[in-house]
C-alpha cells in the first residue's frame, strides 16, 4: 500500500495504482478522454494532467504510478491552465457541429469543454478534415470529430479480439481507420460507440433519431442471448429508440453484444397487436373475448393428456409460471421449454447451469469447449474468456466442435462425437493437461445436447469434468451454455415434462392442443394438421403463422419480468414502454384466460405471482444474487457416456445476427447478414 | 486505390532467400519486429519487378500473414513511415531537401526543376519535399531512390534528370567533382603538417 495525499486528503491505495486511480479513490474527478478502466493505458490525450509535488511539470495521471508519500494536486491554477491548453489543442481540429452531432448531450469533449474550453478560438489556420470510414451497418463514422484517443483501436484489439482498427499515417495526417473499408467482424463492435468520447463513432441505425435528454431511461435485462446482460432501455413516446449496456461487473462489465444492441428495430415490426382467430383457413381479427372463447371451446372435453404447452426462448419467468399453473390446473403435465430438443437433465441445478459463474471465469486456468461457439452464442461471455486467456499465460483452451475464430488460441480436438469419445480416455494428452490444471472448466453447448445422443454427451462431459478435477469442494468447472434467455428460468420453475410428454412426444399427433408461449424455433411442420395451436407472443413469426388463435403478448421491453441467466442469476426488469395495440403482459393474458376456464390462477398482481415463484423455487426470492455451488459428489446426470454417436457437432446458429423473432424482424440485423455474406465492399465514393 | 486493390503480390525467389535471415534476427515470438525489413524487401522487389518502388496492399497483407500479425498493424507501419509508398510512385523517387542549408544554397530552383519533371512525366519521376538529408555541406541535395546527388543547381538538376530519363545512371555524389565533403576547389587549410608551436603547450 502507498500513502498518498490528494488535495489534502490522505489515503492509502495499493501499489501499482495510477495517480488517476488514487485521485478517484479520494473522490476527485479527473477529466480524461483516452483513459478507460477496462483498456490498456495510452496516455495520449493529456487531459488528465495533475500536479505532483517535487515533479517539475504537470504529469499525465493516467499513466503515472503512485509512489509512497506522493502529494498530488488535482485542481491548482497550473493544472487548470495545463488542461485548458490541452483542450485548446484538441479543439483546433474538432468541428463545431455539436448541434447536428448525435453525441451532443452525452459527449465527454462537450462536457469537459464547459470546464476547460475557451470562449473563442485563437486558431485561424485551415482546419483539417478527414474522410469518413466505412465500418459496416452498425457504426457510423464522422472522422473529422475524432480526437484520436485510440479507445476504439484498443477495445477491438484487446477486448473484442479482432484487431481491425488502427491509426494510419502520422502527425496531422493520422487517421483512425480499418484501411480496407469493410464491416467490423466483431459481435461486440457496437461498444466502440459507447467508449468513443466524442461523436466520431455513433450508432448508424440511431443516427439523428433522438437527443439524450428526451429519452426515458429504464433498467432492463437483455434476452437475445442467455448471458443476462444488464441493459438500459432508452425510449421516447412509447417507442424504444436505443439500448445501451449497464455496468454490472459480475455479468457483462460494461459491454453489450451487437444483436442485443441493434435488433431493437425488430420490436416495431411484424408485431402482433390484436388477437386473431383462424376461420376457414384464414386468420381474422378478433377481440380478446372471442379469442378466449374459441380456445376454451376447443379445450373443453379434451383429454388433458392431449394438451401441451411449449415455452419459447424469450419468455419471462412470470409468464411461464402462469402457463405452468394453468396447465397443471387443467390436469396436463405436457410442458417443455427445450425448443431445440436439447436433452438436459433437470434433476439437479448443477446439471444445466453455468456453474463456474461468469465471474468465476476469472479464476479458471483451463477450458474445454464441447459443441459450442461462445463467440457467437454469448459474445460478452467470450470476451471474458478471452481476457482470461490474455491475462493468464497459463490458461489454455481446447475445443471439440466446428472450428471457429474464438479470438483466443485453442487446441482443436476434433469436430465430432468420436473425438469426444477419445477424451473419455484418461490417457488423452489434453485430458492430462486438464488434470494438471488447477481450475479447469468445461463449457457444453446446446448444439451438442440437441442431438439424439444428447444424454450420452451430457454424461460424457460430466465424466470428463469428474476425472479432470473440475468438480471439487471449492470449484465447479462444469458449465452448460444456454442460448435462450428463458431456459434457465424455465428449468428453475419446472417448466419441464415431469410425468408428461416432452416436446418430441407432443409433435406428430401427440397432442390435440398446443399452447405456444413465444415458441418460434420449433419445426412447425411436425405439429399435426389437426392440432389446435394457440400462439401467445409478440411477433408474427413462425409460431403465429401456424396458429389457430393468436394472443398478442409483450416483448421484453414492454413488461416487468424476471429472467434467469446462464449462471442462475435472477434478474428483474422494468417496463420501458407499453405493448402495442391490444397486446398485454403475458402473465395477465394467462390469468384472464384461466378465469374464462373457471379455474382462476391464484394471483391477481405481480407481487402475488412473484410470491408464487418464490414458493416454486426459493432462488426467485433472491434476485441479483448467486451462490456458487460446490459439487457435493456422487450424483451424475442420467445417460450412458459410451453411447455417443460419431456425428459431427453442428454450429448452434446459422448466423449470429438473426436467431429469434425480434432479430428476424430487424432490418438492421438483415443488413448485417448481407454484410457478412459480402464482406468485401468498397467505399461509397 | 481501386487499381491497387486487385494487385497481386507474392515474394519472389530472391526475396524468399533473404527472409529467413531477416526473421532470425529477432527473438522467438517477436517475428513482428521484422515488419519493416520485410516491407522494405517487398518494396525493393516491386522496384526490381516493375521498376516502381511501392508496396501494394496485397504486399502488406503478405507481410502481415507471413509474420502472423494483424493486417491493420502492418498498414499502420507502412503508412507511418515515409520510406514506404502505399501508392504508386515513378521509377525515380526524387526527395528534394528544402531544409535551411539547402534552401539557402538554392534548393528552390532544384525543387522547381524536379517538380516540372515530375509533372511532365509522373511515370518516371515522383517528387517529394523532405527535411534534412544530412548532407548540408554539399547543399543543395536530392536523393534519387537510394543515391544522393549533391551540389546541384537548376541546370545541373535538369541534366541529372535528363540522364535518368534516358536510362543512364549518373555517378552519385557531388555534381561539381568535390571530394566527399571537402571544401569546394580543394583543401584550403592544412597544406602541410603544422609546425610545433610553443604557445599553449604549458
TrEMBL record, chain A:
Query: Gene behind this chain?
Result: nuoG
Keywords, in A-Z order: 2Fe-2S, 4Fe-4S, Iron, Iron-sulfur, Metal-binding, NAD, Quinone, Translocase
Q: Catalytic activity, per the record?
A: a quinone + NADH + 5 H(+)(in) = a quinol + NAD(+) + 4 H(+)(out)
What is the documented function of this protein? NDH-1 shuttles electrons from NADH, via FMN and iron-sulfur (Fe-S) centers, to quinones in the respiratory chain. Couples the redox reaction to proton translocation (for every two electrons transferred, four hydrogen ions are translocated across the cytoplasmic membrane), and thus conserves the redox energy in a proton gradient.
Listed EC numbers? 7.1.1.-
**4Fe-4S His(Cys)3-ligated-type domain span:** 78-117
Gene3D superfamilies linked to this entry: 3.10.20.740, 3.30.200.210, 3.30.70.20, 3.40.50.740
- For this protein, what does the record note about how its cofactor is bound? Binds 1 [2Fe-2S] cluster per subunit.
Q: Which residues form the 4Fe-4S Mo/W bis-MGD-type domain?
A: 215-271
Q: Which family does it belong to?
A: Belongs to the complex I 75 kDa subunit family.
Which organism was this protein described from? Acidiphilium iwatense
Domain 2Fe-2S ferredoxin-type span(s) in chain numbering? 2-78
Q: Which NCBIfam families match?
A: NuoG (TIGR01973)
Electron transport: present as a keyword of the record? Answer: no
User: InterPro entries under this entry?
Assistant: 2Fe-2S_ferredoxin-like_sf, 2Fe-2S_ferredoxin-type, Mopterin_OxRdtase, Mopterin_OxRdtase_4Fe-4S_dom, NADH_UbQ_OxRdtase_75kDa_su_CS, NADH_UbQ_OxRdtase_ferredoxin, NADH_UbQ_OxRdtase_Gsu, NADH_UbQ_OxRdtase_Gsu_4Fe4S-bd
CDD domains this protein is in?
Answer: fer2 (cd00207), MopB_Res-Cmplx1_Nad11 (cd02773)
Q: Which cofactor does it need?
A: [2Fe-2S] cluster; [4Fe-4S] cluster
Q: What is this protein called?
A: NADH-quinone oxidoreductase
Automatic annotation (TrEMBL), chain B:
Output the lineage of the source organism. Bacteria, Pseudomonadati, Pseudomonadota, Alphaproteobacteria, Acetobacterales
Source superkingdom: Bacteria
PROSITE patterns with a match to the protein in the record: COMPLEX1_24K (PS01099)
Q: Where is this region: Disordered?
A: 167-202
Keyword Iron carried by entry = yes
The similarity annotation says: Belongs to the complex I 24 kDa subunit family.
The record's keywords, sorted A to Z, are: 2Fe-2S, Iron, Iron-sulfur, Metal-binding
- Where are the annotated coiled coils located? none
Alphabetized Gene3D superfamilies for the sequence: Glutaredoxin, NADH-quinone oxidoreductase subunit E
**Does the record bear Signal in its keywords?**
no
Specify the species. Acidiphilium iwatense
Which InterPro entries has this protein been placed in?
A: NuoE-like (IPR002023), NuoE_dom (IPR042128), NuoE_N (IPR041921), Thioredoxin-like_sf (IPR036249)
Identify this protein by name: NAD(P)H-dependent oxidoreductase subunit E
Q: Which cofactors does this protein require?
A: [2Fe-2S] cluster
Amino acid at each position: 500500500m502507498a500513502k498518498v495525499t490528494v488535495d489534502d486528503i490522505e489515503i492509502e491505495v495499493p501499489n501499482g495504482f495510477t495517480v488517476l486511480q488514487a485521485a478517484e479513490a479520494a473522490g476527485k474527478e479527473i477529466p480524461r478522454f483516452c483513459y478507460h478502466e477496462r483498456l490498456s493505458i495510452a496516455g495520449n490525450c493529456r487531459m488528465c494532467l495533475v500536479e505532483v509535488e517535487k515533479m517539475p511539470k504537470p504529469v499525465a495521471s493516467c499513466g503515472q504510478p503512485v509512489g509512497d508519500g506522493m502529494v498530488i494536486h488535482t485542481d491548482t491554477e497550473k493544472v487548470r491552465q495545463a488542461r485548458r491548453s490541452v483542450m485548446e489543442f484538441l479543439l483546433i481540429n474538432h468541428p463545431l457541429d455539436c448541434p447536428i452531432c448525435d453525441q451532443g448531450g452525452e459527449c465527454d469533449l462537450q462536457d469537459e469543454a464547459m470546464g476547460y474550453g475557451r470562449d473563442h478560438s485563437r486558431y485561424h489556420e485551415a482546419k483539417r478534415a478527414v474522410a469518413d470510414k466505412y465500418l459496416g451497418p452498425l457504426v457510423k463514422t464522422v472522422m473529422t470529430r475524432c480526437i484520436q484517443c485510440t479507445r476504439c483501436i484498443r477495445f477491438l484489439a484487446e477486448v473484442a479480439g479482432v484487431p481491425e482498427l488502427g491509426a494510419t499515417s502520422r502527425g496531422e495526417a493520422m487517421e483512425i481507420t480499418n484501411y480496407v473499408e469493410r464491416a467490423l467482424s466483431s459481435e461486440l463492435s457496437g461498444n466502440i460507440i459507447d467508449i468513443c468520447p466524442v461523436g466520431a463513432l455513433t450508432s448508424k441505425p440511431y443516427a439523428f433519431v433522438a437527443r439524450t435528454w428526451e429519452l426515458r431511461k429504464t433498467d432492463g435485462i437483455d434476452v437475445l442471448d442467455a448471458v443476462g446482460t444488464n441493459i438500459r432501455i432508452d425510449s421516447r413516446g412509447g417507442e424504444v429508440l436505443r439500448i445501451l449496456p449497464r455496468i454490472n461487473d459480475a455479468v457483462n462489465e460494461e459491454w453489450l453484444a451487437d444483436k442485443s444492441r441493434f435488433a431493437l428495430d425488430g420490436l416495431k415490426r411484424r408485431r402482433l397487436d390484436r388477437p386473431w382467430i383462424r376461420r376457414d383457413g384464414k386468420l381474422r381479427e378478433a377481440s380478446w373475448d372471442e379469442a378466449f372463447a374459441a380456445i376454451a371451446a376447443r379445450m373443453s372435453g379434451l383429454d388433458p393428456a392431449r394438451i401441451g404447452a411449449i415455452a419459447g426462448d424469450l419468455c419471462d419467468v412470470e409468464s411461464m409460471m402462469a402457463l405452468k399453473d394453468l396447465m397443471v390446473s387443467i390436469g396436463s403435465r405436457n410442458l417443455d421449454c427445450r425448443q431445440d430438443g436439447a436433452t438436459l437433465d433437470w434433476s439437479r441445478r448443477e446439471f444445466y447451469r453455468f456453474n463456474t459463474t461468469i465471474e468465476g471465469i476469472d479464476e479458471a486456468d483451463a477450458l474445454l469447449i464441447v459443441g459450442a461457439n461462445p463467440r457467437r452464442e454469448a459474445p460478452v461471455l467470450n470476451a471474458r474468456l478471452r481476457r482470461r486467456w490474455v491475462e493468464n499465460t497459463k490458461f489454455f483452451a481446447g475445443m471439440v466442435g466446428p472450428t471457429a475464430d474464438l479470438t483466443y488460441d485453442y487446441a482443436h480436438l476434433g469436430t465430432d462425437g468420436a473425438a469426444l469419445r477419445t477424451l473419455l480416455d484418461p490417457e488423452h494428452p489434453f485430458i492430462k493437461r486438464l488434470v494438471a490444471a488447477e481450475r479447469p472448466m468445461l463449457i457444453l453447448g446446446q448444439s451438442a445436447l440437441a442431438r439424439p445422443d444428447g444424454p450420452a454427451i451430457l454424461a460424457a462431459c460430466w465424466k470428463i469434468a469428474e476425472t479432470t478435477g473440475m468438480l471439487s469442494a471449492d470449484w465447479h468447472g462444469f458449465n452448460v451454455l444456454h442460448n435462450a434467455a428463458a431456459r434457465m428460468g424455465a428449468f428453475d420453475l419446472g417448466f419441464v415434462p415431469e410425468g408428461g410428454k416432452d416436446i418430441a412426444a407432443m409433435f406428430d399427433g401427440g397432442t390435440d392442443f398446443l399452447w405456444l408461449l413465444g415458441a418460434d424455433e420449433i419445426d412447425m411442420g411436425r405439429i399435426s394438421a389437426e392440432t389446435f395451436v394457440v400462439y401467445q407472443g409478440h411477433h408474427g413469426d413462425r409460431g403465429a403463422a401456424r396458429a389457430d388463435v393468436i394472443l398478442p403478448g409483450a416483448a421484453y421491453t414492454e413488461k416487468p419480468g424476471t429472467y434467469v441467466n446462464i449462471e442462475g442469476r435472477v434478474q428483474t426488469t422494468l417496463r420501458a414502454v407499453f405493448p402495442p395495440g391490444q397486446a398485454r403482459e403475458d402473465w395477465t393474458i394467462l390469468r384472464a384466460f384461466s378465469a374464462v376456464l373457471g379455474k382462476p390462477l391464484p394471483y391477481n398482481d405481480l407481487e402475488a405471482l412473484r410470491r408464487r415463484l418464490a414458493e416454486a423455487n426459493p432462488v426467485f426470492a433472491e434476485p441479483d444474487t448467486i451462490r456458487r455451488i460446490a459439487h457435493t459428489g456422487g450424483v451424475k446426470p442420467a445417460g450412458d457416456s459410451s453411447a455417443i454417436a460419431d456425428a459431427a457437432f453442428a454450429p448452434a446458429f446459422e448466423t449470429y445476427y438473426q436467431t429469434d423473432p425480434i432479430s428476424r424482424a430487424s432490418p438492421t440485423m438483415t443488413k448485417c447478414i448481407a454484410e457478412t455474406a459480402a464482406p468485401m465492399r468498397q467505399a461509397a465514393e | 486505390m481501386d487499381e491497387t486493390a486487385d494487385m497481386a503480390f507474392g515474394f519472389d525467389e530472391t526475396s524468399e532467400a533473404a527472409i529467413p535471415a531477416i526473421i532470425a534476427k529477432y527473438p522467438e515470438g517477436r517475428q513482428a519486429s521484422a515488419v519493416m525489413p520485410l516491407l522494405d524487401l517487398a518494396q525493393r522487389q516491386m522496384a526490381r519487378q516493375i521498376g516502381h518502388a511501392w508496396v501494394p496492399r496485397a504486399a502488406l497483407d503478405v507481410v502481415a500473414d507471413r509474420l502472423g500479425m494483424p493486417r491493420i498493424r502492418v498498414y499502420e507501419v507502412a503508412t507511418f513511415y515515409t520510406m514506404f509508398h502505399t501508392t504508386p510512385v515513378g521509377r525515380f523517387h526524387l526527395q528534394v531537401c528544402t531544409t535551411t542549408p539547402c534552401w539557402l544554397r538554392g534548393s528552390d530552383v532544384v525543387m522547381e526543376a524536379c517538380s516540372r519533371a515530375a509533372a511532365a512525366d509522373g511515370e518516371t519521376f515522383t517528387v517529394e519535399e523532405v527535411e534534412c538529408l544530412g548532407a548540408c555541406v554539399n547543399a543543395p541535395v536530392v536523393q534519387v531512390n537510394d543515391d544522393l546527388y549533391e551540389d546541384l543547381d537548376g541546370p545541373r538538376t535538369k541534366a541529372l534528370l535528363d540522364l535518368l530519363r534516358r536510362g543512364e545512371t549518373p555517378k552519385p555524389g557531388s555534381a561539381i567533382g568535390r571530394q566527399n565533403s571537402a571544401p569546394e576547389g580543394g583543401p584550403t587549410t592544412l597544406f602541410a603538417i603544422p609546425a610545433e608551436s610553443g604557445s599553449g603547450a604549458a
